[in-house]
TrEMBL record:
<comment type="pathway">
    <text>Amino-acid biosynthesis; L-proline biosynthesis; L-proline from L-glutamate 5-semialdehyde: step 1/1.</text>
</comment>
<dbReference type="Pfam" id="PF03807">
    <property type="entry name" value="F420_oxidored"/>
</dbReference>
<dbReference type="InterPro" id="IPR029036">
    <property type="entry name" value="P5CR_dimer"/>
</dbReference>
<dbReference type="GO" id="GO:0005737">
    <property type="term" value="C:cytoplasm"/>
</dbReference>
<dbReference type="InterPro" id="IPR028939">
    <property type="entry name" value="P5C_Rdtase_cat_N"/>
</dbReference>
<keyword id="KW-0641">Proline biosynthesis</keyword>
<dbReference type="GO" id="GO:0055129">
    <property type="term" value="P:L-proline biosynthetic process"/>
</dbReference>
<feature type="binding site">
    <location>
        <begin position="67"/>
        <end position="70"/>
    </location>
    <ligand>
        <name>NADP(+)</name>
    </ligand>
</feature>
<dbReference type="InterPro" id="IPR008927">
    <property type="entry name" value="6-PGluconate_DH-like_C_sf"/>
</dbReference>
<keyword id="KW-0028">Amino-acid biosynthesis</keyword>
<feature type="domain" description="Pyrroline-5-carboxylate reductase catalytic N-terminal">
    <location>
        <begin position="2"/>
        <end position="95"/>
    </location>
</feature>
<dbReference type="InterPro" id="IPR036291">
    <property type="entry name" value="NAD(P)-bd_dom_sf"/>
</dbReference>
<feature type="domain" description="Pyrroline-5-carboxylate reductase dimerisation">
    <location>
        <begin position="159"/>
        <end position="263"/>
    </location>
</feature>
<keyword id="KW-0560">Oxidoreductase</keyword>
<comment type="function">
    <text>Catalyzes the reduction of 1-pyrroline-5-carboxylate (PCA) to L-proline.</text>
</comment>
<keyword id="KW-0521">NADP</keyword>
<dbReference type="InterPro" id="IPR000304">
    <property type="entry name" value="Pyrroline-COOH_reductase"/>
</dbReference>
């Protein structure tokens, strides 16, 4: 399977790196990237062909992944409008709706919306997928194969749910990194040096996530097992509750989902 990425920034690099690490042949992966520095990095890091514009060789692919920023997508696809034939086009752009992307591509509807996340770089991503009704089973399978190479995948029943996936798992790694930053800073405030506080924070998140993933129990049950009556964890959780931690998370995720919808509505008017 030949895969071309239109846009070779952060997310494309995470996906390309993941694909190559998982055994996809670098010769079958291409990237179209405006910045010369970005192209040089993709070529040297992953051995893929990186070009400045979508030439015939880059267009001759089975799956074309649209990996530019939502605000850049309409202009980025303009040169290929009306030139697509059988390629499955997978947009990973936040918010943008298939109907608008299809229109910008010159009424081309072999389209899939996908929302991956950056842990794809180490094969630990999670991607939500939604396909236009006209995409064949083989087209869906091709899109899924690309994203499944870099982590797990879930298909959603309605396109609007991709904005929810974006808010929970697309943006989610940033929330977790932010929690790690905060836990590290809290450790430093207790007198640990930076390296020790970072290790305590990262290994805790890693271990807890692994335990939650490997366990049949709900995360709430695992939380209760840490929480001795009248103990230290109970003191911390009472402080979280008093500060409204669950509502803080719910509001943040709702803000991300609303921003996705807003981006789709705003940019789709064009
Ligand atoms: N980062 C993440 O965690 C995730 C991002 N996404 C989605 O992925 C997409 C890309 O995000 P991200 O990788 O973070 O963004 P980046 O800005 O890092 O990457 C986009 C790249 O595309 C380049 N570009 C812009 N226009 C063109 C063009 N016409 N032809 C070729 N290349 C072009 C940009 O160059 P220049 O910088 O010069 O403009 C930039 O290098 C977005 O739509 C985002 O919503 C989805 C899931 C997770
Ligand atoms: O912040 C963003 O808009 C993109 C989409 C999901 C992660 N990054």
């Amino acid at each position: 399977m030949k895969i071309t990425f239109l846009g070779g920034g952060n997310m494309a690099a995470a996906l390309i790196g993941g694909l190559v690490k998982q055994g996809f042949k670098a010769a079958d992966v291409q990237a179209v990237e405006l910045s010369a520095e970005g192209r040089a990095k993709l070529e040297s890091q992953f051995g893929v062909r990186a070009v400045e514009s979508l030439d015939e060789q880059a267009l001759a692919c089975d799956v074309l992944v649209l990996a530019v920023k939502p605000q850049q997508l309409k202009a980025a696809v303009a040169p290929i409008a009306g030139r697509l034939t059988t390629q499955v086009v997978v947009s990973i752009a936040a918010g943008l709706r298939l109907v608008d992307i299809g229109r910008w591509l010159g009424d081309y509807h072999t389209l899939v919306r996908a929302m991956p996340n950056t842990p794809a770089l180490i094969g630990a991503g999670i991607t939500g997928l939604f396909a236009d009704a006209s995409v064949s089973a083989a087209g869906r399978a091709a899109a899924e194969q690309v994203l499944a190479a870099v982590g797990s995948t879930v298909w959603v029943a309605e396109e609007a749910q991709i904005d929810g996936v974006t808010a929970v798992s697309g943006s989610g790694p940033a929330y977790v990194f932010h929690f790690i930053e905060c836990l590290q800073a809290a450790g430093e405030s207790l007198g640990f040096d930076e390296a020790t506080a970072r290790k305590l924070a990262i290994d805790t998140v890693l271990g807890a996530a692994k335990l939650a993933a490997d366990s049949d129990e709900a995360p709430g049950v695992l939380r209760e097992r840490v929480t001795s009556k009248g103990g230290t964890t109970a003191a911390a959780l009472a402080s979280f509750a008093a500060d409204g931690f669950p509502a803080i998370v719910t509001r943040a995720v709702a803000a991300a989902e609303a921003r996705g919808r807003e981006l789709g509505e705003q940019l789709g008017r064009d």
